[in-house]
Structures are given as C-alpha cells and as structure tokens.
Amino acid sequence: MAKALIDSAFHPTEIIALIQYKFTQSSSSSSSVLTRKEKIACWRKSKIRCYEFLNLTSRSFAVVIQELNEELRDAVCLFYLVLRGLDTIEDDMTIPIEKKLPILRDWEKIIATDGWNFTENGPDEKDRQLLVEYPVVIEELEKLDTVYKEVIFDIAKRMSNGMADYATNAAHNEYGVNTIKDYDEYCFYVAGLVGLGLSNLFSASGLESPEVGKNTKLSISMGLFLQKTNIIRDYLEDLNENRRFWPKEIWSKYASNLSDLKDPDHKKQAIDCLSNMCLDALQHVPDCLVYMGNIRDQKIFNFCAIPQVMAIATLALVFKNYNIYLRNVKIRKGETVKLIQKATNILNVIDIFRHYTQVIITKNDSRDPNFLKISIACGQIKQWCQTLEASHKLSSKSKAFNKTSELNLFDAQLFILFVLLLLATTGWAMHLWGIHWEQVVNHLIFFN
Amino acid sequence: MNHVLVIGGDGFLGRWIVELLLRRNSDPNQPNYAISIFDLQQRYFDESLTYYTGNLTQYEDINLAIAKSRAKTLIHTASPPHGLNSKIYWDVNVGGTKNVLKACVENGVEKLVFTSSAGVLYDGISDLVNVDETASFPKVFHDDYHETKAEAEKIVLAANRQNGLLTCAIRPSAIFGPRDQQLAAGMIKVMERGQTKFQIGDNFNLFDFTYVENVAYAHLLAMDKLSSDPDIKVGGEAFLITNGTPIPFWDMPRFIWSQFNHYPPYYIKMSRTAGLALAYCAEWACYLLNREQGFTRYRVKYACSSRYFNINKSKTILGYSPPVDLEEGIKRTCEHLVQQNPKNGK
C-alpha cells in the first residue's frame, strides 16, 4: 500500500482511489466468496475446494469472477479451472512431449472422467496441486447445468487440440510466431476461445441476450486485445524464457533477430517495432467497445470491462516506452484501482478509452514509419466512442445513467490545490508562531 | 454512347472527374462516354474532349453547351474559389445552378450530380462530430461560400423527379490531392516559413481529409446509381464523402512535412484562446504592414475544430468505399508537389 501511494504521489485522484479502495475492501464484501462465511456453510466440499483453487491459481481473474451472479459464477469458475488445468500441462516443459500430447488431445474426455488426476508435473510447477486434486473439478463440472457444460466442453476441445498442434509444431517452438496471421491464430487459441466461451456462458445464463454469444468476431476481439497487450508488455520476460510471440512479419522490418531489439544500438528500431505491435493491437479496440456496449448485466459488465480498461491503460503506457526492453513495465496500483472504480458502465468505459487513445495520439511521432496508420487507428477508436456514446445516451435517457465521475477532476488541478493548501497552512502557522520567511531562508542557507 | 457534360470540368475536382471518365473510356469492360466540358476557360487540351467555354451566370451559355453536347447526364462541380465577395457566390452558386436546372428541363437532361460541400453543415462555431446526413443546415452559415452552396443544394435536390430529371448531391469534406492549391499547398507554406513547431489546441480534434480521386469516384458512383427505380434511393439525396479515416488535425500537416523529411524538433503548444488572441494581433499587424495574412483567427478556429462525419449512408446506398487510402493519397499529393516545385524535395 505504501509503495502504491508513493507511486501515485503526483496523481492525487489515484491516492483518493487507493484510500477508498482500502476502506471498502476491508469492510463489506470481501474479494473471495470463501470468506463470506454465511453463504458457503451448505456448500459441498468439492465446490469449496474449487474456489480455493481459483484463488490460488489466479490473482486478477479470481477477484472479478467472484463478483459474478451466483449461478454464472460457478460456471465461469469451472471454465477457468478447466483451462488452467490444461495450461498447467501444456506449459510444463518437464513433461515429455509423448506424455503430454495424448492428454492434450483427450482433454475433453479427461474432464468427464471421474477421479482423473495427474501427479507428474515438475516440482516447480506452481499449479501442480490443482491437477493432483483434479477430481474435485471434474465432480463439480459433472453437476453443472448442461447448457454451461456444453460450452465448456466445446471450448476445452478446441483449445486443447490447438495446443496439441502448437506443441508438435517444430517451427513454432524453434522460431516463434511467423506471420501476423499466425499471430492472430495463436492469440485466438489462447485467448480468443476464452472470449468465445465466456460469451456463450453469459448467453446460456439468460442474463445476456443470445446475440452476445452469437457475435463471435466481437468475443474473439475481446480476447485478442487483452492477449496482444500482454504479449507486447511481456517482451522481455517471454524472451528470457525463450518464448517468442511477436510475429516475425512485424519485427523483421526492424531487426534481424527478435532479441536484437533490446540491444541499445537498435533503440530507434525497437521503438518503431513496438509502435507497429501497438498498432496491431489497437485494431481490436472498436470491436471491444461494441461488445461491451451490448452487455446488459451490471456484474457481467464489470467482469468484462475491468480487464479491458487495464489493457488500454497498459497499451498507452507501453506505447513509445523503451523501458519494456529493459524491465517489467506495469501501470501504477493507484491507476488500476481508479480504473476498477470507474469501469462500471459503458459511458465511463468510453471515457477511459478516449482518454488513453488521446495519450497515444499525443505520444505519436511523425518520425515513426507507422505514424499515420496509428493516427488513423486512434481516429477510428474515437469515432466509435462517439457513435456508441450517442446511441447509449439515447437509449438510457429514461433510466438516468449514474456516471461515477465525481472524482473526475484533473490530477493536475487537484495537485495544484494541494500545494496551495499546503503553502497557505504553512504561512498561517508561521504567522501564528511569529516566524518570518527570511528567518527560515537564513536558517536553511547559513546554519545548515 | 453516354453523353456527359462536366460543368467546371477544368477545375481541381472537375478535372479529376474527367480523368476518371477518360479512364473508363480506355477500359474495354467499362461503359464509354462522349465527354464534354463547360468551364470559364480552357486549361487542358485533350483531343477526345469537347470544350464549351462560357459563364454559368449567362443562361444562354450553359443552355447552348448542354444542347450541343447532347448530354443526358450532367455533373455540376463549378464554384468560385474561397475568399471572394458575397455577390459572386450568389451569382454563380445559386444563380448559375438555377440556370443549369432550367437548361436541364429545356434539353431533357435525365441525371444531374451536384457537388455540394460537407461545410454546408458548419455554423462557424460548433464542432462537427461524427455528423451524418440527418443533420439539418445551421441557422447561420460560417461564410457566403457555404451558405450559397447549401442554397444551391436545396434547389437541386428539390428538382429531383421534376420533368424527368433525377438529381443528387455529393458533400465532400476537406479535399486535397495533386494540383490542389489550397490544403496541402498551404501546409507546405507553413513548412517553408519555418512555423511547424507551433501547435494550437490539444490535437484531440478529429478531421476528415478526403483524397480528391475518391471524391471524383463518388460522383461517378452517384451518376451510375441515379435511377428511376424506387428501390434505389439516390435521387433527391445528399451524400457525405470522406476517406472514412478521420485523424487528429495536426497529424495531417505533420505527415505531409514528414514526406519532405521535415520533423519539428519539439512543439510549442498553445491553447485555442491564446491562439485566437495572437492571431488577432497578427491580423492587425498584417493589416498595418499591408502583408498577406497567414496566421488568422479563421485558421486558428479551423485547426482547433472537430470536423468528421459518419459516411454510412454513402457506403450503403452508393456502395462507396474510398479506392485510395489516406496515406497513399497524401504520398501522391506530395510527389506531385515535388514534381511541380523540385526545390521542395530533398
């Protein structure tokens, strides 16, 4: 908390957000359903264990999932654990490929097999316990309503087969992602499918219209935008672990090796390449905005919008930011909290996207080979913001949207106010104690 | 053979329309046209074109041209340049257009495509944000040029389905392109004067710049689609035409300058209010020193306003999509500027 506060020292609105967050957190609804004792008293042991795993295996996701409506929450939680289990096998390099492959190919059958577990993960695999106790997930999955089960099994099947294909694709493992098309396809398997599955779960729950699930392009874009932003931000981390997700079709325009980009001699090329990657991610933003505009349920909206606003904030932060080649770049905790507080309706989300798009516009530079393309992409986003805002203002005239922007004073204005207040109080105190400015200055200069 | 008369066919946009028609003539898969041009004076000399010089304000001039050309299709792009006195605009834009309509009836013309302007929606103060054709004309226009354009557009559209004539209007936004004397050329002037460091406003205002060939193409689409079939709702309609890619205003000049390898080392940003105050002083200084006014309040307002449009109607009804994207359009424009004036190119 202290570090977060110091990081936000020049952003007073974030300090306010942090303090508010701290207080609401410790009082009413806790982030984990498991601490809401009164509710889980009658839960099955396996269900409790599933939620424990959710909290153990995911940091960011666990919080938002548990805010969902009860029925949907269980489905999404299990969906998450099914994919997490799959990922834990796919990701573990200590498992030999001939062992891994049949599990990936059969994943959809495995999750319907009572009592299946897996104990051969490497000792360093942080989520290995989940697979050891996997029968609890399978048991809960079994009890889930068929409409949800169908969605989860369908996505599990497609994703596990995709992963199996990648695991046997020597070129992919050796050289990383090649074309932009491959990049989109890879992101589709690891994130687009998650978007699809979630949308289908939302529609299956009846909380959202069937169209949310049917409009697959929008759902896929939701996943791709998040994934691509992470891939850009995690350049260094991934490279250090020998993972190469930046497509060759892009980086080869700027360097002869992906790893050359972090070489200080290639600074200009590295920044240009980064812009090109950001441009590619920006293409998905209009779809994401339209998707969020179609969401009706408040809790589902928060669930979808929080990761998206974090992604656009991250993208604006990494754009033109050479630091991603040197260290891990992250948005400030205070900024995150402020975004979470604000991302509660489409109009606020549009505001946030517009704000960060303007940050990108301001950083854009005519020396960049993609200058105009980035400019156009930003223009497109702003135009969509406008279109959606107009249609939502029109449709929400009756049920007055509560825009949570009382704290929307500019940081700069608040900061100046703080400084003025500080000066005024010091002046007043000095006046009371009969101290003069001269004395203070003399003291500081001559007697220090 | 289709007989087409392009009024103002030697002007900036008019010439592009003529060139697209000529392009169709050289394509065996496209319809052929007998192309005639009506303009104040002849500037181009193509053998395959028939020229009629005359003044639009004289009914006989235009009537004779239509009669002789045997044109059943008219594209009317003629308009005086910006910055003239009020009377010329009323005479040419309104009076001239009335003459055209009268002559259309007289000669049994079937189709008329009229070049209007997206500026007919501008009141000189309010931003135009994602505006479409459902917006009505402002009560007060921002200058005589656009007031008379709006008036002429009304008259043209009202003449649809009268006396066998079908009409429609094209409203392009901020046209630029090779041979353009205003937009790109003006931005080059700023570079030559070494004033590229200045930015007025926050550069968050979006602007629709439109490549001239796309505008010309939209005219041909409108001409093709004008039909008595009641299912094709082109007749009597106005269509906004842009490149469909609005960008922050200052990114346009910056991209143009970058084509000449000119990159401002830093930017001096000032607010719109400060810009207006300075421009006011500059206007007075220029007035006193009797110099050409470069930095004016009009330009400050222009650079700080949002002007972009929703072109869905053109996309769905005309089937319009810009053949030349913004980047390509600007590059072609800059190449042309270099050819014209090689000292620009480095």
From TrEMBL, chain A:
Instruction: Give the EC number.
Output: 2.5.1.21
This protein's pathway reads: Terpene metabolism; lanosterol biosynthesis; lanosterol from farnesyl diphosphate: step 1/3
Recorded hits in Gene3D superfamilies, A to Z, give: Farnesyl Diphosphate Synthase (1.10.600.10)
Q: Which UniProt keywords apply?
A: Lipid biosynthesis, Lipid metabolism, Membrane, Steroid biosynthesis, Steroid metabolism, Sterol biosynthesis, Sterol metabolism, Transferase, Transmembrane, Transmembrane helix
Where's it found, cell-wise? Membrane
Q: Establish whether keyword Ribonucleoprotein is in the entry.
A: no
| Gene Ontology terms, MF aspect | D-glucose transmembrane transporter activity; squalene synthase [NAD(P)H] activity
Return the InterPro entries for the record.
Isoprenoid_synthase_dom_sf (IPR008949), Squ/phyt_synthse (IPR002060), Squal_synth-like (IPR006449), Squalene/phytoene_synthase_CS (IPR019845), Trans_IPPS_euk-type (IPR044844), Trans_IPPS_HH (IPR033904)
Provide the transmembrane region boundaries: 300-319, 407-430
| GO BP of this protein | ergosterol biosynthetic process; farnesyl diphosphate metabolic process
Family of the protein in this entry: Belongs to the phytoene/squalene synthase family.
- What task does this protein carry out? Catalyzes the condensation of 2 farnesyl pyrophosphate (FPP) moieties to form squalene.
Give the protein name, as stated in the record: Squalene synthase
UniProtKB/TrEMBL annotation, chain B:
| One annotated GO molecular function | oxidoreductase activity, acting on the CH-OH group of donors, NAD or NADP as acceptor
Listed A to Z, the keywords are: Oxidoreductase
Q: Name one GO biological process term.
A: steroid biosynthetic process
What are the 3-beta hydroxysteroid dehydrogenase/isomerase domain coordinates in residue numbering?
A: 5-268
- Per the database entry, which stretches of residues form a coiled coil? none
Q: What family does this chain come from, according to its entry?
A: Belongs to the 3-beta-HSD family.
Please report the name of this protein according to its UniProt entry: 846_t:CDS:1
Organism of origin is Ambispora gerdemannii
